[in-house]
Amino acid sequence: MKHVLVLARDQATRLELTELMRQHDIRATHVADRKHLLGILSTDVVDALLIEIDTDEMVNVIRHLTTATHAPILVVGAEGSIEEDKVRGLEAGASDYICKPVGNRELVARVKAAMRDRAGFNLLRERRSYRFSGYELFVRQRLLRHAIAGEIKLTTAEFNLLTVFLASPRTILTRERLLSASRLHEGEISDRSLDALVLRLRRKVEIDPAKPRLIRTVRGSGYLFDSEVATEAKGL
User: Are strands 96-99 and 128-132 parallel, antiparallel or unpaired?
Assistant: First the structure.
């Protein structure tokens, strides 16, 4: 099931948009501020963002979000939004700018279209992948595939952590380095939560997470990724 993250300060708007997504078999999570949104991006897989924010905040918020996720960002603009606002939003990185009033069916259709378009765009733009132990990680798509299990979705923090391991296989990586590489913004990943993040990643890549063979703990030092890793560059 696709997952849409709804950002709006007005509670009624958040609940209305969330319920609309759910009525069309789309999982939806609503938040009231950017900090909460970034926290969810670090722990959950998000396929699209639907945001309603003040015009003067729009550009900065969109630009910040594009550094944290590859999911499409759709802006719900106020009724009577001027062309300049639409252009600013799209140039900042939004996939779509939807002006009120808009019908429910059209809004859902545009969200679904943005998710389809982004999936195709990521596939076309793919340039590099890592292969290890029956897995292949597609970097631009943030997509992990297994030869038998198929597609495995990763959160942003899980993806960041895995790419650090894959870039330095069979090398002891300190907790400090892993903490730095896995956070989206200052303070998001703490020392105490690193172990929980490693456990979540183990559940996705290990045959038996209780007896890990790929992501090994090196007591007193950090972690080590114990696998041969091949890097493949891809063209169009």
Answer: unpaired
pLDDT tens figures, 87-126: 888 888 898 999 888 999 999 999 999 888 765 444 444 4
> In angstroms, what is the C-alpha Rg of the chain?
19
CA 40, CA 17: separation in Å to the nearest integer? 18
Q: DSSP string of 6-64?
A: EEESSHHHHHHHHHHHHHTT-EEEEESSHHHHHHHHHHS--SEEEEE--HHHHHHHHHH
d(CA 74, CA 127): 26
Complete domains list, the chain, with CATH: 3-125 (3.40.50.2300), 128-233 (1.10.10.10)
The conformation of residue 154, written as its DSSP 8-state character, comes to -
pTM: 0.58
